[in-house]
Structures are given as structure tokens and as C-alpha cells.
């Protein structure tokens, strides 16, 4: 399905955009990998992911870690189909802008 160029204020915030960009080509990513790749604190990444979860753009899953000997669990993060579509549409709008075509549609998220 072709992207519908549409800015999304909720995705455009830098850390949200970067998270969506990292998640787009993969099925899921470990929280610790995202934290390391983005250089964010655990608290900042948690808050940003929570806002994307609240929008329905990402989902998280917790599971036992095979590599740990204790009871701690790992968290994986993935884009939902809604999040994937919103990100693709946002990128299409940015491409249009970069190529001199302005897109009149703007989505307003909560963030």
C-alpha cells in the first residue's frame, strides 16, 4: 500500500521519530538496544515509548531473558501496523517537502 503523505506531529518529535525509524525495518528491538543506539536515559526512553504506546504506534512485550540467571525480564518494542503506516506517511510528507511539494495534511497527536 502506498504511503499517503501526511505530517504527524506525534511522530515528528526527535526521539519519537528516531525510535520509529529504528523500529521500521525490524520486527522488534530490545529496550536496551534502543537505549544504547539513541543515547537516552532509561527514564527518558521509557517515557517516550509510553507516549508512542498510548498513541497505538508501538507495543511492548516483556519476557524472561535466556541470557540472565536472575528473574529480571527483558522488554522488546515493536511498531504496530498503525505506527508503521503513520511513520511511512510522515516520511512521505517529508520527502514531498524536500522535493518542493508541500503537503496540506497534518495529523495532531498528543505529544
TrEMBL record:
- Residue intervals of the Winged helix DNA-binding domain: 16-97
- Spell out the coiled coil positions from the record: none
What domain of life does the UniProt record list for this protein's source?
Answer: Bacteria
Q: Which residues cross the membrane?
A: none
Output the InterPro entries linked to this UniProt entry. WH-like_DNA-bd_sf, WH_DNA-bd_dom, WH_DNA-bd_sf
SUPFAM superfamilies cross-referenced by the UniProt entry:
Winged helix' DNA-binding domain
Q: Which Pfam families match?
A: HTH_34
Q: Which Gene3D superfamilies match?
A: Winged helix-like DNA-binding domain superfamily/Winged helix DNA-binding domain
Name recorded for this polypeptide: Transcriptional regulator
Amino acid at each position: 500500500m502506498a504511503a499517503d503523505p501526511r505530517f504527524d506531529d506525534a511522530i515528528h518529535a526527535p526521539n519519537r521519530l528516531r525510535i520509529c525509524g529504528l523500529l521500521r525495518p525490524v520486527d522488534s528491538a530490545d529496550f536496551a538496544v534502543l537505549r544504547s543506539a539513541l543515547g537516552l536515559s532509561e527514564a527518558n526512553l521509557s517515557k517516550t515509548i509510553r507516549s508512542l504506546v498510548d498513541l497505538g504506534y508501538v507495543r511492548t512485550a516483556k519476557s524472561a531473558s535466556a541470557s540472565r540467571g536472575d528473574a529480571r525480564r527483558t522488554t522488546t518494542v515493536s511498531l504496530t501496523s498503525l505506527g508503521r503506516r503513520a511513520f511511512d506517511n510522515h516520511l512521505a510528507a517529508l520527502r514531498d517537502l524536500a522535493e518542493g511539494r508541500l503537503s496540506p495534511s497534518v495529523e495532531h497527536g498528543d505529544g
